[in-house]
Amino acid sequence: MTEQLYTALSAIKELRSSVGQIFESLGGGVRAEHGVEGRDAKYLLELQDLLNAVTMNLRDVETAINVLTPPAGPFNLGNSSFLSQETTQDRQALYSQLVNSYKWIEKIREHSNLAANLLSSNALKRSYSTNSTKRRRPLTSNHNVMPQAVDQALSAIDRNFNDMVLKIWRPFASNVILHISLSRVLKAAVVFKGLMIEWVIVKGFEEALDDVDDLWTESRHRVFQQVRDHTHSAMLHFYSPTLPELAVRSFMTWIHSYITLFSDPCKKCGLHLHNNLPPTWRDFRTLEPFHVECKN
């Protein structure tokens, strides 16, 4: 009986999902992926396939429901069933609130399990860790790198980009703050600890970024606020404890792609502006520009 009930609920979920896809397709209308020639015919074929899927899912729901047998008596709710018989007016709503709370807790439990599975398979760890009990020689940390080695690595990167100016600044003795000026498009400050990037701030070319206090104030422009958020993602993506110089060089190559921030259109929708913003996302592998809404 329990397996049959789960089968029926799964069929209903599939039906709701297919119906939702139809409304999503109707709301989006004819899109860029339909091409130019015969786009209306392709859109109608898409709707026809979605309607066929709804018909098949509806048949599955009917089949699953017909197999179910109604319970012989009322469900055993234990002592909670007496809550619905409460005569006091301010306590009559306790039963419905209890049911809603139960559903909410069950949904939290389900989402927590999904989040735990995702986080366990995509852990972002910035340190060496192993479950093996075998002793091994400790690896050299890229936190403790001589300042001369950091300067040498950044100078080598600077020679690769003629249109990006890098300026090394050490307000706190050993650790570097790297100022980046990108062809009158933007300015950025990259805070290092050894050869590890710890913080990135991005601002407009005319905004102040010469003082330590400026590192903790965000840009007043929304476009550079989005770029700053993307640089934090790139900082984690390119991090490599075993190849720190390659990680920094890859990050600099990625941020250099923003030299066309206001000139290149989005590779997906082909538009320069979407919600009054240019394509602020750059693909980590191809460096192609995308709007935030178009990158997935």
Low-confidence stretches: none
What is the string of helix and strand elements? HHHHEEEEHHEE
Q: Helix count, per DSSP?
A: 6
CA(first)-CA(last) distance:
41 Å
Q: Proportion of β residues?
A: 5-15%
Short description:
With 296 residues, the chain is of the alpha+beta class. The chain is built from six helices and six strands; from the N terminus they run ααααββββααββ.
Topology summary:
Blueprint: H1 2-28, H2 39-67, H3 94-121, H4 147-158, E1 164-172, E2 175-182, E3 186-193, E4 196-204, H5 222-237, H6 244-256, E5 281-282, E6 289-290
What descriptors fit this protein?
four-stranded antiparallel beta sheet, single chain, 296 residues, two-stranded antiparallel ribbon, 13% strand, alpha+beta
Question: What report would you give on this structure?
Answer:
This protein is of the alpha+beta class and 296 residues long. It contains six helices and six strands. The protein has helices at residues 2-28, 39-67, 94-121, 147-158, 222-237, 244-256, and strands at residues 164-172, 175-182, 186-193, 196-204, 281-282, 289-290. A hairpin with a 3-residue loop joins strand 2 (175-182) and strand 3. The chain is elongated. The mean pLDDT is 84.
